[in-house]
Amino acid sequence: MAQAAVTEETRDASEEAARPLIKLEDVTKVFYTDEIETHALSGVHFDIRKGEYVSIEGPSGCGKSTLLSILGLLDTPSGGRYWLNGTPVEELDASQRARIRNREIGFIFQAFNLLGDLTVFENVELPLTYRTGLSKQERKRRVMEALERVRMAHRLRHYPSQLSGGQQQRVAVARALVGKPSILLADEPTGNLDSKNGQAVMALLSELHADGATICMVTHDPRYADYAERKIHMFDGRIVDEETLHRLREEEDRQIAEQARSARR
Ligand SMILES: Nc1ncnc2c1ncn2[C@@H]1O[C@H](COP(=O)(O)OP(=O)(O)O)[C@@H](O)[C@H]1O
Ligand SMILES: [Mg+2]
pTM for this structure? Predict the structure, then answer.
């Protein structure tokens, strides 16, 4: 009896280890505005495993933010399937989605998105206030731990407007970390920063990854994509391999050159 239980448990554990943290199958997203249909995602397949650091690169408008919003449960796909930690996301109702988003996802935005009328401490504490069963002391302990992690514990009572862009993004990273999510999603986290602060934020993400964090980062800067251990390229709402990407870019360049030529005629 005990033997059987152990075997069962071992199998469950190994199945869990083998299962991707994120799995997308043929995910599509269509936006409708004023009779215009935009196919932002046209059949995306991809997996992220626990502990991976994945970057998503691609030209402006190719669907990177749309994909990240879907991964982060901020938006829903028009079609296809998404499993997060083995849970089929489309079967969740709104309150289950909100709960899973709060527990499993840490989001880092290009524009930091801190709340201006809350202090650094309160901004980082915010995600924890939606959780039941955490005492005030426990919340404080976690907030301090996250702020120390990003070396911002000396600015607890400052407001976002009193911080530099780089400092604000570090606070935003602490807010993403504080709930100990399964994955950190970062949408062009260096996009509003100068290169010195951008590099500091990238170094911080690398440090978190070395300590076991799973990260998926969108960037249009190939230098920053190199920080990741796996690079994914997007073009026109799809994930493409590097060879296809070069071919598509060359085709696009040819078309632009052709248009310029015919305009001159
Ligand atoms: N809320 C929306 N409503 C209508 N169209 C949208 C919306 N969000 C994105 N799009 C369109 O979807 C496409 C992909 O956008 P996005 O995912 O933001 O691209 P990226 O992040 O790669 O620059 C673009 O053509 C964009 O204009
Ligand atoms: Mg974007």
Answer: 0.88
